[in-house]
């Protein structure tokens, strides 16, 4: 069979076609004299057969999507977003001193409910060690006529005091929202209380909003709940759910009068995290070509002497230790391929082992100040450093707590999996055959036939799927379940596996190990040496480019096919969603309500209740929303709470409770931590994806144990 040259539009497609043609011509299920493509009628029949299979799959997916997710609800968000224009926010530059003030009048307030002021200047960020002696006073005044018959004028005055920093270096932006009465003009007066006659330069912008803070919080809560409903019940893919949630949140901002422009929305995306993910995906994709992951799987099987639980404990312990010094995402990207190959060798279900690994990765990341982003945010805060909360002190305290969590988690994990059958219910041949069918089917669905040659290739793929399904039915009819929890002939199995799974490219392995070692070493230096001005994303991308040059990759598209683009889009949409929810005052509202609950507790029990409350709120919030903006929001709330004379609480126990809850709270849901999403994406690419509810079913008991022992430790 000769394929026309126009069909060879990419090298990977050519390899698939040749491979499929060879396997189909040598299929044992066909008679020796049977011809596959002897005439055009046979080609047309098989193409029609593949098209019917594809159309059935598409029609079922379309009916399910139309039944569960209405198109009208999507258009509603688009209409809200398109009906309200971007609000221009011109910045007004001015200067004030002890003798000169600044005033402005707003006459176009109309029926708005809130006035949002954003002021930039050399302000203090929180607790600076000494009380502020200089400050800026902003007065927002509104004269309102009340009464229906006998009208009288009532003055509404809001005072906003912002402390000034002694050094006029950094420009800090601060925002506050004022509740105003509709229809009355507003006067804004800015005064300065200074020790000398210096001039303080300031910048200010204002914006009018249509709804109250409580309404914004309700809207944000409804949007967040809707996103979780889409993900939990798998109505749509989690990437599409995050994108729809982002669109709904942006539509809500447009509805309240705070629609951001496209430049602002793009700035919300954390490109450092995306660059880190992209660079590590490229490195792992090239690394997998060496056969190193198969070799590691065989060695782990040899060390465990064919027993399952020693392998799982070793993998989880190594993952926890590495996560204490590396980023959790990096650890899971390196461990997930090894774990999948190991489970395939042992005939295990990789989902159970991957979930256990990602749980211990999040636990280990909380042990040090550089293991998890919330810890980095806490240690980097200059105000907390002045209280003695440095790298060594933070790591020493958190390390003791995490060791206790690890000691209790291993036996509890064994009890949790006690009745779980980690082995696959079928033989390894049947499991591999099912997995092969899934991979071929996914490959066929990814081809969008735009030409006759592409249609022929897709028909070949679907024909191969049909042949494999026929072979699978024959094996299932004759299969007898014979599963042994411990292989008695593990030595013979190891010898066979060592012959089958070897290092395929030693030269490429040396290059990959060298580049990856340097990248990991630079990760360490970035955490401990402040003189290196390269972020983690830059290090990963530069390492990927370096390895691409050394490996001399000819077909770059094959490497790009292994990049989890759906995962990258999910994180980008999630960043936009979380920032939009923050603009809707959801995160600030959670912090303020937590502070109010702590103040309501009697003084004798206030510290213990405050620690438990902060930890539980942080854990629950971090399992639902991103823990990075939540931690950044809660730090000034806890600092101000500790400075309140009526509360009389130390800031260190509250910060430790925040760190423990924010880091371990990522184990609460599938999207609670970045490592969870990355692990699920890689597993799905290998054909072993797990859903939101599958992850939640396993982590819920462990989540309760974490909170219980952390409460005892506090």
Automatic annotation (TrEMBL):
The chain crosses the membrane at residues 209-233, 240-256, 276-296, 308-326, 394-417, 508-529, 535-553, 565-587, 607-625, 654-683, 695-713. GO terms for biological process: melanin biosynthetic process; melanocyte differentiation; transmembrane transport. Residues 228-661 form the Citrate transporter-like domain. GO terms for cellular component: melanosome membrane. Its main location: membrane. It is a multi-pass membrane protein. The keyword Transferase does not apply. This is Oculocutaneous albinism II.
